[in-house]
Each structure stands twice: as C-alpha cells, then as structure tokens.
Design a protein that fits this description.
Helix 6 runs antiparallel to helix 7, helix 10 crosses helix 13 and helix 14 runs parallel beside helix 15. Among the domains are: about 100 residues; about 130 residues, Rossmann fold; about 180 residues, Ribonuclease H-like superfamily/Ribonuclease H (Nucleotidyltransferase, domain 5, 2-Layer Sandwich), CATH 3.30.420.10. It is about 25% helix and about 30% strand. About 0% of the residues have low confidence. It starts with 7 loop residues before the first strand and ends in a 17-residue tail after the last helix. A hairpin with a 4-residue loop joins strand 13 and strand 14. With about 725 residues, it is an alpha+beta fold. It has 17 helices and 36 strands. The chain is globular and about 75 Å long. Belongs to the argonaute family. Long pAgo subfamily. It comes from Synechococcus sp. (strain ATCC 27144 / PCC 6301 / SAUG 1402/1) (Anacystis nidulans). GO terms for molecular function: nucleic acid binding. This is Protein argonaute.
C-alpha cells in the first residue's frame, strides 16, 4: 500500500541555510584509541573520553570508544595521569554513517564556536539542548532590564549535515536571561527564590566561566574552611586565584557541585565569586514577589510577551544573521537563503469515544461517554474546609459522563479537613482504611499554600494502593478546568476516555512502547515505560530500573518489553506481529540490541525510533499577505521525510496565535527496523493527538512518550520506587 500517493504535498521552509559541501580533506581525521589504566565504571567512559578531548591541544571529538582530531596530537599530549592514547592512523568519515555524521557536525560546531568567539562584543556559550548561544554582551545587547536582571538579544546557532555531505547553518532567535548580581546579592534581595545553577564570575584557565549545580548557603566564613588537599584555607585559595580582599572578607561560604559529575561531592565556594544562572522561571517568581514594585512587574510581563516571536520574525532575523556568518566566517559573499523542502500533510487521527463514536476532541466524551470504563467508586478529601460537597462542576461532569456510559458512580466516601489526622502514623492508617473499603482513587482539594505536604499525601496514598488527583479550590466554578480535573481523576481510576481508529495498513505496529529516563541528580530512573495498542488502548506503565547514567540497561528494557508483550497476549490472545519502540532522546549504543535479538527469535518484527524535542529547527510556509511575502508556521501534521538520514521532522502542535510565538517540530530518527518512514510518521503523529487527560489539547510528544516522560518525573519526585508496587499499572498516576 503506497501511503505517499494519498498524502497532500506541501512546500516547507526551514530555518536552515546552505554553507558548503564537505571536501575530502574535511572528511579526513586522525583516529586514536584510548587505554585507561583502570576500566571506567558503566556509564562513565563517554564522560572520561569527552574530558580527555579538552586536554589534547587540538580540536578533538569522541566517536564511539575512540577519539578523532583534525590535526595530529603532539606526542607530549598523548598521555595523562591514568590514560594513554594510541594513534590508529587516519580515518575517512562518511556522512551516510550516523556516527560519522554526528562527529563531523561536532567538528564543524567547534570550528564555528572558535570563530564566533573571536569578537570582543559577543559571547558564545553551549546551549543546553545542543548547538551554540551567541549573544551580545554589555549594554548594547540589553533588550530589557530591571532590578538584578537583564534580557540580552542573541541567536541559537547550530550546524547540520545531510547524508550527501552538505553543511547547513540552523539559526533561531534566542533571548538570554542574565543577572549581573552575585549569589550574595541575589539571596539578600530574593531569599525565597531558589537557585538551581550558578557560575563563576571570573575566568578559568580555559578562559571560560565554570558552571555549578547549587547546593546550599551557610553562615561559615572563608577563613574557617580548610582545604585539606591543598593545605590552605578557602580564603587563601581564592586570594591566590585573583579574588580581592573585599570579595573574600564579605563572602559567606556556599556549597556547589560540578554539573557533569554524577558522583561529585559538594565543594565550598564564595557567595561573592558566583553569579546565579537566571531562568525564565526565576524571573516569573520575581514578578510574584510581594516586595517588587508594580512597574517592575509590568516590565517582566512585557519580557514574556516580547520573547514569543512569530515564525516570520524568526526567519527574517535568521536570514540576516546567516548572511553575516557566511561572509565573516566562511568567506561566502552570496546572501543566505532559507532552505525550502518538499513535505507532506498527514491526515488527522480519528478519535473514538464510547461504542466507537467519533469525536473531534477529548472534551466531547462529556456528551458521548468514555471508550473504556474503570473503577466506579471514588473518594473525596477536602483539605480546604469542612464542606462535604464535591466541587460543583466536577460533580456535574462525573455524573454526565457516567450517565452516557449507562452506569452509576459511588461518590459517598467523603472526608474533610477536620477528619484528616496530624500524626504521620495516623495519616498512613487513614489511607489504609480507605483502601480496605475499596477506594482506590481519591480527589483531593487543597490550596497551594496548604500546610499539608502534597508530595507526602501522594506517597502515603500510593503506599495504600490509592491514586490521588489534586485540585486547587477555585474562586468560582470553571467548567473547563473541572473537565480536565475529571479526566485526570478518571485516568487515575483506570478509565480510558478516548481511543484511536487504527491506521489501516498491513505493516502498522500493533504494540507501541515509549521509554524515558528521569534523574534526581544522583541516580537516573530509566526504562520508565508506557504502552498502547494500535488503537490507543492503554496497556499501562511499568516500573523503572534505577541506573547509573542515561544509557538504558539492555536487560531492563527486555524485562519491560516482555511484560508488556504478555499483557498484549492476555488481551488479544496472540503475540504482537510488530512492535514500535519509542525512545525519548538519543538512543545510546547497544541499548535495544538484546531486545531486538530476542524478538527476532520469536519472529516478532520491531522498529526503534528516537524522538528528539530539539534539533528540528523551525518549519514554516511562504504565503502572501497584502502583496508581501511572509512566513507562517507549517500546519499541524506537516512532515519532511529524510530517507537518506532515516529520519523525519514533523509539526505536532499549533501556536496560540499566527503572530505570537512559534511551534517547535520534533525530529524522529529511525534507529532500527524496516518499516517505511511515512508509516512511522503517520503512526507517530496520530499518537500525538491521543491525549485522554486533556479536554482540548493534543500532545507535542506521542502519547506513549508523554506518559513515559511524566511517569519518570513522577517516579523521581517520589524517590521510593518500592512504594509503587502496591498501585495498579492501569492507573495513570502521572497525568
């Protein structure tokens, strides 16, 4: 069946600009093998190789377990304290090889970073999501500022290569949030606004600013902290590093930890030798601070409005920047032209409610009923006041949905603030008693500023096998918010509000599993998984494996997949013919190999795709308005297939307005399998439109990954994986 012939063609413009085709010399590198005196721990090898790359005196890149450079490493740089490099000769890189292409992109990115860093009026930083942030420093670059904060104009710049070796610049508008204050000043002014990351406000040996994960503030003095390894005080150390007497004497000791070191210990630092890394979230909290004047709050609100640039503004500004870089860095005088590609418009998914009735959005289940029924007994806990009544609109919504499904709900189990005990042991008994009475899902109403700990309530309830849906008391009834609360409550009770009409194609996967990993900065919670059938029917979630790094354990993946195959068998009375495994982020080498081999033995086909939230740039379309050429966001469902790179980029969400904000497409890479890209794109797109817990919005991610992502975050917040053993896997506790 030829899917492409049935799809509508579409012309799409990307924020990418052609630079050059790589020459033979660009594709040639020196290759080195690294010998460690002590075998690195699992998950540490990549970090160690990356750190060695910075010590070689040449631009170096890790490729697999080796290192490559564009110039030979000097003999005196080939050995370190606990490692040694052995030259393996030259290596010809091929852009059709994913690993080679990735390494070449890293080289080109490093070359570009070096050239852009030459200007004294701008600064270059690595972007958290990949690529570079290039911004104008000093007063010239400030677009808006206030008490302790600045917003600088800049660009996010990256490079990309296609399988033919064509190099492109990818450019987008970027706003950098910055504070000129020290940590000391920030905590004096905004003690209630927490810090997550900080940076040195002085240059290190490599002429950069070291970033840290913030730990805690203390009243300790620098002269009282002895650094045993150096035989001097913290004060003496910083004086030797260029600090002034005033900086040292007026500082308190704060504790920080290296961002990239998973097992790094807290390190003593000085409050006046660090500056906060300002974020949008921190600035939003400044606007909520009662001590901040109204004018300042208006300025901050104006910032949030101004950074939501339309695709038209983004592409026009990107074109100017690309032309400047082509001239100054690459010596190319011709103007930059945004890349135009042939794309397709995928058909929308068909959503189904009770009795397979078609609906246009999840909210319609209020009139049609839910696709699948779960628990029918619910508890209600009001920690706001002592009123036993359910919130009016939620109660009304529950009864309407139950009526459309021709069933009665039991809503009599209700408790109020005065019923809830204060003692920890009594609280645990409170939840256990409710559980023994058959209540497994509870609506909890409590204000944000309640003295009760929301997380503690959630964990105590889960220990008793109860899922909780929280709701903030509203000043007046809001039927839209009430619907979403009701949907969350039903999903946590094992209901399935909507399902999908399966894609009609013989090669479609009949079991789809999403994998995600989350971290509490000490351990990673990997193989958090959620699965659905081809029609969107939920198979529930699986417990994560606690691991040492972001690479999934191959054994843990197989355990998860095999459990879900058994669930599939119990529902369908057969094994699946094909699996689609979706990984949030990059697939690491060997992660899925064991699962692939074992599925081969059972003659079960499998495709593995990685879904990347960054790296897809922007997708627009040219239109004429009032006789002028302008850009608008590509329509939802727009896809560009890139068969040579075994990947596609796709629009799965919509901007709020044509002139405010712009959508971020997804980039999906087909890591393993033989299914056509267009079928993978169609099934992936349809899963983004399946959002049972939201009445009016679809997901940006496919539903299985959205749930796996939410689950991994929920698991890391809970922290105690053992408590999840008591909760049914059909209850979507993370929505």
């Amino acid at each position: 069946m030829d899917l492409l012939s049935n799809l509508r063609r579409s012309s799409i413009v990307l924020n990418r600009f052609y630079v050059k085709s790589l020459s033979q010399s660009d594709l040639t590198a020196y290759e080195y093998r690294c010998i460690f005196k002590k075998t690195p721990e699992l998950g540490d090898e990549k970090r160690l190789l990356a750190s060695i790359c910075y010590k070689l005196g040449a631009i170096a890149v890790r490729i697999g377990s080796n290192i490559i450079t564009k110039e030979a490493v000097r003999p005196e740089k080939l050995q370190g304290h606990d490692w040694q490099l052995v030259q393996m000769g030259t290596k010809q890189l091929d852009c059709r090889n994913d690993a080679h292409r990735c390494a070449l992109e890293t080289f080109e990115r490093k070359f570009l970073e070096r050239d852009l860093s030459a200007s004294s009026q701008t600064e270059v930083r690595k972007a958290a999501e990949g690529g570079l942030i290039w911004w104008v420093v000093g007063a010239k670059g400030i677009e808006k500022s206030g008490n302790g904060w600045e917003v600088h104009r800049g660009r996010r710049i990256d490079v990309s290569l296609d399988a033919e070796g064509n190099l492109y610049l990818e450019i987008d508008i970027h706003h950098r949030f910055y504070t000129p204050w020290t940590v000391h000043q920030w905590l004096e002014q905004y003690p209630e606004i927490p810090l997550s990351y900080v940076r040195n406000n002085y240059l290190d040996e490599r002429h950069g600013f070291i970033n840290w994960q913030y730990g805690r503030f203390t009243q300790e003095r620098p002269q009282d902290i002895l650094l045993d390894c150096l035989g001097m005080s913290l004060a003496e150390y910083h004086l030797n590093k260029g600090a002034t007497e005033e900086e040292v004497q007026q500082s308190y000791v704060v504790y920080v930890k290296p961002i990239s070191w998973r097992k790094g210990k807290l390190t003593a630092h000085l409050s006046r030798r660090l500056s906060p890394s300002l974020t949008m979230e921190m600035l939003a909290k400044v606007a909520e601070d009662s001590t901040v004047c109204d004018r300042e709050k208006r300025e901050i609100r104006a910032v949030f409005k101004s950074i939501k640039q339309s695709i038209n503004q983004r592409l026009q500004e990107a074109q100017k920047t690309a032309s400047w870089i082509l001239t100054k860095t690459y010596g190319i005088s011709s103007p930059a032209i945004a890349l135009s590609c042939d794309g397709y418009l995928l058909p929308a998914a068909k959503l189904l409610a009770a009795n397979k009735q078609p609906v246009s959005k999840t909210a319609d289940i209020r009139n049609k009923g839910c696709a699948k029924i779960g628990e029918t007994s619910f508890g209600y806990l009001n920690l706001y006041n002592n009123q036993l009544q359910y919130p009016l609109e939620v109660h009304k919504c529950l009864l309407e949905i139950a009526n459309k499904n021709n069933l009665q709900l039991s809503l009599d189990q209700r408790r109020v603030l005065s019923d809830y005990p204060q003692d920890d042991l009594d609280q645990q008994m409170f939840w256990q008693t409710w559980s023994s009475q058959g209540i497994k899902t509870v609506l909890v109403v409590m204000p944000w500023d309640s003295h009760h700990d929301k997380q503690k309530i959630r964990i105590q309830a889960i220990q008793a096998g109860i899922a909780t849906q929280f709701m903030v008391p509203l000043p007046k009834a809001d039927k839209y918010k009430a619907l979403n609360v009701t949907l969350g409550l039903l999903c946590k009770a094992g209901w399935q509000p909507i399902q999908l009409e399966s894609v009609d194609h013989p090669e479609v996967a009949d079991l789809i599993i999403g994998f995600d990993t989350g971290t509490n900065r000490e351990l990673y919670y990997g193989t958090s998984a959620f699965a659905v059938l081809a029609d969107g029917q939920s198979l529930g979630w699986e417990l994560p494996a606690v691991q040492g790094g972001e690479t999934f354990s191959g054994q843990a993946i197989w355990q998860t997949v095999s459990k879900l195959i058994i669930k599939f068998y119990q529902i369908c009375q057969r094994y699946p013919q094909k699996l689609l495994l979706m990984r949030d982020g990059l697939v690491q080498e060997g992660e899925f190999q064991q699962t692939i081999e074992l599925l081969k033995e059972r003659k079960i086909a499998v495709d593995v795709i990685s879904v990347r939230k960054s790296g897809a740039g922007r997708m627009g379309q040219e239109i004429y308005e009032n006789g002028q050429l302008v850009y608008r966001d590509a329509a939802i469902g727009s896809v560009i297939l890139q068969p040579a790179e075994r990947s596609f980029i796709m629009v799965t969400s919509q901007p709020v307005s044509k002139t405010i904000g712009s959508i971020r497409p997804l980039r999906i890479v087909h890591e393993y399998g033989s299914t056509d890209l267009e079928l993978l794109a169609l099934q992936t797109y349809h899963l983004t439109q399946l959002h049972p817990a939201s009445g009016f919005r679809s997901c940006r991610l496919p539903w299985v990954l959205h749930l796996a992502d939410r689950s991994s975050k929920e698991f890391q917040r809970i922290g105690q994986i053992s408590v999840l053993q008591n909760i049914s896997r059909d209850k979507l506790i993370a929505v």
